[in-house]
User: What shape does this take?
Amino acid sequence: QSALTQPASVSGSPGQSITISCTGTSSDVGSYNYVSWYQQHPGKAPKLMIYDVTNRPSGVSNRFSGSKSGNTASLTISGLQAEDEADYYCISYTTTTTLWVFGGGTKLTVL
Amino acid sequence: EVQLVESGGGLVQPGGSLRLSCAASRFTFSTYAMNWVRQAPGKGLEWISYISRSSSAIYYADSVKGRFTISRDNAKNSLYLQMNSLRAEDTALYYCARPADGAHFNGGAFDIWGQGTMVTVSS
Assistant: This one.
């Protein structure tokens, strides 16, 4: 079982907005602004989409945004496009015995 | 183009050993900490190990602690993962990953990934 909880799947139609949640505890998401998000297309390496909760790397569309409230971080994708269909993973710094923990991943389907 | 290329994967019997390598190019390898992340077939990502720039700080996930050893050779621009006492559950695609410039050290933000090398543990 993953340390961070993500919904297994979300879906949306082109042009809509969706939000993927990433729920942790006070040992990780709740206490630190050290959450990143990755996009992974089948057969490809993960791509960094958001870091330090809200920051977008250069080259990442501003349709992607991150936020956090309490023990839950969120990734919002606005203006959904077909190319956004992929798996999305959150990762957080943690004060448990490991350094970082990933969420279990969310499959985004663009209808 | 900044690049990471993993190698050394393959089929190994349970209890066996394997050494993975990650060759870095077109960036100053010695100025970056490095990580290994794995992904079992059809499963999610799992961070497994971190090494600081000078190898002075090393961390492991509980799942591999005591069995895997991360190391690096800055003169050769290379990262390594020595895997011993391999188990079926270690079967995965192993990626090396570089932290993103500008991100906090603790952020788990990796912007450069290799293509991965597959490790299969089976008799």
In short: Chain B touches chain A at residues 37, 44-47, 50, 59-62, 95, 100, 102-104, 106-111, 113-116 (CB under 8 Å). Chain B has a mean pLDDT of 96. The longest strand of chain B covers residues 18-25.
